[in-house]
Amino acid sequence: MARMATEKVGICYLVGAGPGDLGMVTLRAKECIEMADVIAYDYLVNREVLGWAKPGTEIIYVGKQADAHTLPQDKINALLIRKVKEGNVVTRLKGGDPMVFGRGGEEAEELVEAGCKFEIVPGISSTIAGAAYAGIPVTHRDHNSQLTIFTGHEDPSKEESSLDFTKLAQADGVKVMLMGVQRIGTLMSKLIDHGAAASTPVALVRWATTGRQQTVTGTMETIAAVVEAAGFKAPAVCIMGGTVTLREKLRWFDNRPLFGKRIVVTRTRAQAGDLTKRLRDLGADVIEIPTIRVEPPMNRMLFGECVEDAHRYEWIVFTSPNGVTAFFEMFFKIYRDARSIGAARLAAIGPGTEKKIREFHLEVDFVPQASVAESYVSEFVEQFGSVDNTNFLWVRGESARPVITEELTKLGAIVDEAIAYRTVPEREDVTGAQKRFREEGADVITFASSSAVENFLKLGLPMPPGIRIASIGPVTSKTIREHGLKVDIEATSKHDIPHLVDALLISEGNS
Q: In the structure, what pLDDT confidence band is assigned to residue 1 with cuts at 50, 70 and 90?
């Protein structure tokens, strides 16, 4: 009997989550995360991808670290099969590619035998990406035309090793080994004993493609001592061969101005992207700790009525990108045509707010030079003259300071307020960022609003010794100081994300 189209049928997606850099995650992998009812993820998966999951998704950690296995493989197989048979969309996330030493083939076989649907979603393997991010090509016409990939995870001292060290040692070209850091000395000795040149260049790349990346180099003869001296630990990829010598010439990732700096971003999940991207592009190791979550206003009907009547106002004032998003989401539920906004002119405080309005293909008629509410009224009057009897609609958050209403009303304006959203503390730590901050600390923590400061402090996270605080502008800085903290870095000229990043660069000696 054919299945009805509406009948819920489970499926398991065996997904490669890439080597660690979010930019290396495929579009298909992101789709599988977004549609999942259940996500089972491994140790090497960048947990930030879990932020793409829809609300209510069951998220299960099944990672394996050395001898610490959350679940043995047979239990993982059984979990996947059970969840699929319950009718769930299951996304099984693996670091790198699921079919490159990821046991994806084994899990696929188990799913087939259990009669479960599955799909394989390849990912970018660390065998290639780790080398590339260290400035080491795995193939090069002047050096090699062969690439050998193998795992060093097994114990090479056992009587029946599955590794043929004679063939590996004598293989031409570049060799890439995964999961061999703990046995690096023994493995190199065995390769040399079976014919490999002791002088063969070797590089190990740890936490490849992320802001935590660390690279050490040596030869087959010396690399074990280098690893020990550096305190170098797994996870790492090992590259052996002549192309390792190109690293100093081709390195591009770990010589950027903020590389090696761990910087905390404390915006909402939706807003963190721009600042995070800018910092990562400059090499920083970014930890996103969302402190607030944007939710609809308590009285959505009243907000809807304000939006419906927006065309009746002479000016609509937006003070945040959140307000713009909430306004137009409601607007296009009510109207089909952007022209229904009528003759109302639009004002934006801050370039981020202006940019968000322009995303809706609307012109912005006024943006004050200073990105603070206090400057809005004085600059507006200077440019447009008297506001007496002028109708304004101020689209704002529930907790916004009443500066604009008070100052405009004093000058005779008629101001209505549309409460577009409210912010609530973000309590979930889906990505493990709070845990990482507690354990590893950071060099700098950034604040882009007063509410971010206040809600971060409510999380009760300890401030690591020596951490510096970066503020987007004077209003946020005032809040930071009111809580007894010191502002070390502040955006000047303009109080926006690009200028905050500029201030961070200057503080690190990069102008």
A: very low
Burial label for 244, CB within 10 Å (0-12, 13-18, 19+), is buried
Alpha helices in 171-299, H assignment, sequence order: 184-193, 223-230, 247-250, 272-281
pLDDT for 156: 45
Class of domain 11-124: alpha beta
Using the 8-state DSSP alphabet, how is residue 52 labeled?
A: G
Residue with tokens 């047979």: 74
The torsion angle over the Cα atoms of residues 122, 123, 125 and 126, rounded to 10 degrees, is: -160
pLDDT at 387 > cutoff 90: yes
Is the Cβ–Cβ distance between 251 and 281 less than 8 Å?
no
Phi, psi of 294 (to 5 degrees): -85, 130
Domain ranges of the chain: 11-124, 128-250, 262-291+426-507, 296-425
Burial class (CB in 10 A: 0-12, 13-18, 19+), 397: buried
Residues designated catalytic:
42, 64, 179
pTM of the model: 0.78
Q: Write down the CATH number for the domain with range 128-250.
A: 3.30.950.10
CB 480 within 8 A of CB 471: yes
Residue 464, preceding peptide bond in cis (omega within 30° of 0)? no
